[in-house]
Each structure stands twice: as C-alpha cells, then as structure tokens.
Write a structure and sequence with these properties.
It is built from 20 helices and six strands. With about 450 residues, the protein is of the alpha/beta class. The chain has three domains: about 150 residues, HUPs (Rossmann fold), CATH 3.40.50.620; about 120 residues, Serine Threonine Protein Phosphatase 5, Tetratricopeptide repeat; about 150 residues, DNA Cyclobutane Dipyrimidine Photolyase, subunit A, domain 3 (Orthogonal Bundle), CATH 1.10.579. It has a six-stranded mixed beta sheet. Helix 3 packs parallel to helix 4, helix 12 packs across helix 19 and helix 17 packs antiparallel against helix 18.
Length: about 450
C-alpha cells in the first residue's frame, strides 16, 4: 500500500544529512498518529536510513498564538495531541512539544535530523511557515499531502468557478487516492533519543491553564478531541443516523450530520479514512453514500482550491467575484429591514427566534448545521450596515465560536454567502443579484424541533 507519488513533494534539492540522529516529522496539519501518510513516509525513510522517528509540535501562545484561536480551540487541539502522543509512544516514536512556532521548532530540531518531513495545509500562515522552514533548514525536506483526498494541484491547476467545474475532475481521480494506508513497522525505536519537551501534553487541562489565551470563549463538552474519539464517533454514526443521510442531510433536527468537521479541521482524522468507511457501509443507500462523499470530497476540496489559489481569501475585496461586489455596491444604500450591532448578533438578540437558536448552538457548543450556517450568514448580510461590514462580522463570529472556524471551509462558506462559487439570481434590495435566503427556507425542516434540540444541547454544556 504505497503512498501515492503525487502526495510527495521535495521542497529542496539536497540529500539526507549523513550524520543526523533521526528523521524528524513536524506535526502541524495532520495531528494524528493513525492513517497519516506523512508519518508513514517518515517511518519508511527512517527504516531505510536506520534511525528512529521523532515527531515535533510547536505550540503558539500569547500574542504570537494562532490568529483568532481561543481557549475553545486550544482545548480541542490539546486533547487531540494527548491522544496522538500516546499512540506515537506505543509505536516507539519520539514526541517533542515546545512553546514555539511550527517553523521555529522544525528549524531547531532539524539541525540533528537526517531528513525533515512536513505535512501540508493551504492557509496563508501555513504557507509562510513552510517558506521559513525551507529557508532555515539545511537537510532534505519532503512534504506529504494527507489532508485531502486528491492533492489540490493534482485536481486542478487553477481557481475553480464552482463545484460543478471541480466535481468531474475529482471524480476522474479519486479512486486512485481512496486507498487504505497500512501502518508501517517502526524498526528503530526512539527510546535513546534525548530531546527536551517543554510541554507535557498528557494533561491537556493543565497545559491549557498555563497558556495566555482568550478565555472568554470556553471549551465545550459536546466534542472531545483526538483520533480515538473521532473514529468512535464515526463508527457509531455509520451504524445509525448515517442511514438516511441522502434525504435527511438538510434537516438539522434529524441529526443526520456526522460532526466530523472539527476533527477534519484539526487533522485528527483523515478524509480518506472517512470516505473508505462510508463506502464500506453496505446497508446504506447509494444516495446516502454519494451525498456524503459530495460534501466530504467535492465541497471540502473546492474550499481548499479556493484558499490555495486566492491571495486574500479572508478579505472582502479579494475573496469575492467582481459581479458580486458590483451588485452589492449598487444596493449598499438600501434600507435594511433590521440593523443589529455585532454584540447583539453574538448574543442572539434579534427578532428571529430560529436565527437566535442557531447562534446559541454555535456560541455555546461550537457547532451549527450547514443548512443553518447559510441562513445565518445571509441574515447577517441583511442586518448589517454595509456588505463589507457584514463580511467582516460573519468571518469574526465564525472564527471565534466554531470549533472548525479558521478553516478553508469556513473562509469559503463565508465568501459563498456573498456570491462566491455562485451565479447571479433575481435582483432584490440589499442583496442585488446575490442569492437571497428567506425565512421560507426554514419550512424545509421542523424548525421548532430544532430549537428544542438546541435547548437540550446547551443545557448539557452547563
């Protein structure tokens, strides 16, 4: 079960260091010890070079922390890292965690590494880290793509207009990449490697308490981080509410969603692992499987395509198509039926009880169903003083409260509210020809049952 060649990319033209002591893998995007092609490649290379594998993780803190990340995000991340460290130790792989940027810890530890292995993300900050690493490391660097099914540049060499233009490209390729990944045997254990780890992540709560973070957004009980928890959830889901996903996916009260998005965002489960598990559910209908893979692969990788090929994917001026900006500008002076401050929106203090319930679910549990996310975003556009301010508000609220905020999907979904990956529709006030979503869309599901479900979920949060 070889790792597909298109997942591998050498970032420099040098040979592995002769005198190095280990193969170093920087854990950054794929935060897991299972079904991780970057880790398995590192093990292959370490076995070939007759040395152990050391995995490192740089934890940003304080003012240098990951942009917009808060205690909610860090709690989930640390839970996942604790799970990962335990699984790495069981395989004989070393783990070093320090308060540093990913680039800094990689550069420091690579001084005694035969080879440096990186995984891959597509955000601008990640691209900047990779550039710093290439400039600061003298040994061979290989990057391994493990966060999408089809590597972004393999799927398409340009920014795609919409899902319908990327879909056939992915369908032609994805069978080649939807393959099991066998865990390699670690031949050289890391017991003898003496590297100081500043952080003992075995107690995530203690680590969290020692960090300088925004604590106004609290960790949630609804989701526990880590590959172990992700696979437990996935197994239960596929044996239960997945059956009927094709018809129930747009009904928030039906609980047909898998809730895999936080785990995918933090790299705690592989999209290939999920896709293979979905394909293997014989009791599911063809529609169930196809609908889920559409969301997991086509829609998610359209988002990766967008952030990879768009400079300024997080800014109104550069993230949206010209037609959308033009029509929104033409309607910018229209009277808004309601105007709310960002604080009122965050507290769910609007006239719309269903919107308020969606905002409460997001604010208190870190999640909101995709169907409601679109309604939620369209109403912020309708209730804000300008489209530019609406975009900024939507993105700030999204990134602050969602566990899977600050993700390519998040940046892309927010931009979709304002016309990205869409076409002009019938012209109307405020929206121009950008797609409008009215309260009538809530009639497609039992909105009152959803409100009651949110009340139960939030009560469990305490």
């Amino acid at each position: 079960m070889a790792i597909q060649a298109m997942r591998l990319k050498a970032l420099n033209d040098v040979e592995p260091r002769e005198g190095g002591s280990y193969v170093l893998y920087l854990l950054q995007q794929a935060n897991r010890a299972d079904f991780n092609p970057a880790l398995e490649f590192a093990i292959e290379e370490a076995n070939r070079l007759r040395c152990p594998v050391v995995v490192c993780f740089g934890l940003l803190d304080g003012e240098s922390g990951f942009p917009e990340a808060n205690a909610r995000h860090y709690a989930f991340l640390l839970q996942g890292l604790a799970d990962c460290r335990q699984r790495l130790a069981a395989r004989g792989i070393g783990f070093v965690m320090r308060k540093a940027s990913p680039a800094r810890i990689a550069i420091d530890l690579a001084r005694d590494a035969k080879l440096l292995v990186l995984d891959r993300g597509y955000l601008a900050i990640q691209k900047r880290w990779y550039g710093e690493i290439v400039d600061g490391v003298e040994t061979r660097i290989v990057q391994v793509e493990g966060d999408v099914v089809v590597p972004v540049e393999t799927a398409s060499t340009k920014h795609e207009f919409a899902a319908r233009t990327l879909r056939p490209k992915l369908h032609r390729l994805w069978d080649e990449y939807l393959k099991p990944l066998q865990a390699r045997t670690v031949k050289y254990k890391a017991d003898g490697v003496r590297l100081a780890s500043e952080i003992d992540v075995s107690d995530p709560d203690a680590v969290l308490a020692g960090l300088s973070l925004d604590t106004t957004v609290a960790p949630v009980r609804r989701f526990v981080g880590g590959h172990t928890e992700a696979t437990r959830r996935l197994k239960a889901y596929l044996a239960g509410s997945f059956l009927g996903y094709g018809t129930d996916r747009n009904r928030p009260e039906a609980d047909a969603a898998s809730h895999m998005s936080p785990y995918l965002h933090f790299g705690q489960i592989s999209p290939v692992e999920i896709a293979l598990a979905v394909r293997a559910v014989e009791s599911a209908s063809r529609e169930d499987r196809q609908s889920y893979l559409e969301e997991l692969i086509v829609r998610r990788e359209l988002a990766m395509n967008h952030v990879f090929y768009t400079d300024g994917y997080d800014r109104y001026e550069t993230a949206l198509p010209d037609w959308a900006k033009k029509t929104l500008a033409e309607q910018a002076g229209d009277r808004r039926p309601h105007l709310y401050s960002e604080a009122e929106l965050a507290e769910g203090m609007t006239h719309d009880a269903y919107w308020n319930a969606a905002m409460r679910e997001m604010r208190e549990t870190g999640y909101m169903h995709n169907h409601l996310r679109m309604y939620w975003g369209k109403k912020i556009l309708e209730w804000s003083p300008s489209p530019e301010e609406a975009f900024a508000r939507t993105l700030r609220l999204n990134n602050r409260y969602f566990l899977d905020g600050r993700d390519p999907n998040s940046f892309t979904n927010v931009a979709w509210v304002f016309g990205l990956h869409d076409r002009p529709w019938q012209k109307r006030p405020v929206f121009g020809t950008v797609r409008y979503q009215s309260e009538n869309s809530l009639r497609k599901f039992d909105a009152n049952a959803y409100v009651k479900a949110v009340e139960t979920l939030c009560a469990a949060e305490g």
